[in-house]
Amino acid sequence: MPPPPTPAPMRPRDEANVLATLSVVFAFVFAPVGAILGHLALSQIRHTGERGRDRALVGVTLSYVFITVAVVALIVGTTLTDNSPTRVAAPTTTTAAAATTTTPPPPPPPPPTVAPTDLEGLVPTLDDAKNLTGDQGLTVHRTYRQITRDPADGDIDRPECWGVFDEGAPDAYNVPAIVGFFSIEYLDIHDYHNAWQTATGVAAFHDAAGAQAQLSSLQAQWRQCGGSSLKATTKGHSFGTDMSVPADAGNGITTLQLTTHGLAAPLLGVRAIAAKNNVVADVLVSASAADADHLQQLALTITNSILGKIPG
User: Fold this and answer.
1) How far is CA 98 from CA 101, 102, 120, in A?
2) Which segments of the chain have a pLDDT < 70?
3) Number of domains in the chain
4) Which domain holds residue 302?
């Protein structure tokens, strides 16, 4: 009888399973692979009886521990990132003053304009004029609420000089731009050798720019006519007037002197013009028995009084 077949050689039971060893190694390298290898090693060991079951269990345990730690760390890190406040980089500060950029404050609102109905309150009253001149014989000679010329003013041979010769002359103003006007003249001619006259006109415009434009126009007329003479004719009587060169009297006031010859008595006058906000002030002070310095101071006092009542 032939001998029975020789059985296949069995794997030695003392040899440790390779996958068990690899599961431990990959547990530290890449835990998911270590867990898979550990499970495969346990399955093989059940069939072959090889050694390494404990090693495979260690590899599986370590792999799951590392996987768990990684997942927990990922969750905690995501939570902290979402809850942490957003950090904004602090602006770079420069010590140099020139490098500092600051937003300028908004400009203040413009002052309220003077209404036409308020113009009368800007000029001196009759009592004010009496106190300033010292002449208690002053009376109201004429009052205007719109800019116009009194026919009694007569004519002058140089119409371009009306703005110098007469206070509130319509020829010297941009009449369509005026929104309000008031003029009052106080006069005392009982004694031609001690006559007094104060005439004050105030013209209101839409805004400060309109008033400044009118003031510039008046100043240009004064510069053109200053330092020369003109001839005036009133009620058939002619007389001459010398006009001095205009001067800056401070506080935005321009003044000019008038010297009139050919009347019953020589007449000295001082003109003053200025603008503030939307108002132009136009002043004439004249007398037959006062010196130029006194009239100059009087004209400035009246003009500054008007400017002081204008807001702005």
Assistant:
1) 8, 10, 51
2) 1-14, 82-101
3) 2
4) 116-309
